[in-house]
Description:
Layout: E1 5-7, E2 10-13, H1 17-21, E3 29-34, E4 43-46, E5 59-62, H2 74-83, E6 84-90, E7 106-109, E8 121-125, E9 132-135, H3 158-168, E10 174-177, H4 184-192, E11 195-199, H5 203-216
Parallel strand pairs: 2-11, 3-6, 3-10, 7-9, 10-11
Antiparallel strand pairs: 1-2, 4-5, 6-8, 7-8
Helix pairs in contact: 3-4
Amino acid sequence: MKPDFEIKKVKCYNVDCMEFMKDVPDNYYELAIVDPPYGIDKKITNNNSKTKSKGNAFAIRYDKNRWDKNRPPRKYFDELKRISINQIICGANYFVDFLEISRGWIFWDKMGEKMSSVNNELIYSTFDVSIKTFQRCHGMDKGFLSDHKVFHPTTKPTSLYKWLLINYAKEGDKIIDTHGGSFSSACACLDMGFDIDICEIDKEYFDNAVNRLKNNVQEYLEF
């Protein structure tokens, strides 16, 4: 399949990942790093006084793309395991019924003890290693230290993906990300020289993510 955007070793596809994976050979990728929708219909709180409901501290709205309405089916995880040797899956506590037992879980400590809206995150890996912890202050990548205007409700920090690559990938590994979102994984792979194929089905998210890549790597682009 021809990528819709490509720069150095990063190939980006505006496509349904299930459509993409069906033609990928077995064990083609050394590592999958993915962040699928959790199926909790992601709600976003807004404490702006103009949107408060009577008697409620917060008004609730949904991400307009409703990307998180359903979690992937078992077939998705079967395909992911078929095409990749190892997998790292964010928010995997929502998918335990589809996963095999592993001792290599990762704990993302968002360092938000004094902020009630912060939820730490569990990340699954197939690696037979002890539990590792990644620490990153909540909000750093959605606030003043963000490298882009945040356009996806669950943007993950590029530093998380770099940490995952340092700890779990090796030089020459091919990476797959089936739910690209804001392309933080692509930014990390570009900076660190990894090959990555990244899929994003939503055209609006895809275009914004490609623009993020372009803005971050202007020196690599040919005009």
